[in-house]
Amino acid sequence: LHRTWILAESRDGLIIIDQHSAHERVLFERLMAAYAEGGADAQRLLFPLTVRLTPDELREVEEVRGLLARAGFEVEPFGADTVIVHTVPNAHPWFDAERCFREMVAELTAGTSDLMRSARNQHERIAMTFACKGAIKAGQAMSQPEMQELFEALFATELPWHDVHGRPTVVRLSVSELERKFGR
Fold this sequence. Notes:
three-stranded antiparallel β-sheet, 7 helices, 47% helix, elongated
């Protein structure tokens, strides 16, 4: 629905899933599990990204470089204000690795969002930021199989009911609620 919500029939009504929030939850839990297992899968770039950073961003990247590598972003210094990104996570077919990396670094450097303050440790901080910035966006068209895969992945997570910000991923409408709305 409007390239933002996935509608599904349940035994007792209707389920509405926010595709961005759902994918955020899935990415977060996958990365946290990957951290526990030694690191996430990544793909080596044929043409590495060259990214200019502010001095504060450069310090932040250097500080969390090992965690970024375990998240799939292999980064190395390249000159005074630049880094080269050799590998990136393979989050989904429309993943914009450069945009995600830049937004993550900006957010990690600022560290002022509620998301950053709620993280318990650096691993969680990176995972939350990656999930937020790397997830499928509202408005992104998805095929039927992709929606089914996201639906199944969401309900395989430990906490499928909300994203990393605490917003709901799922809204349920019971048959009785629908009947009431239609005066039945």
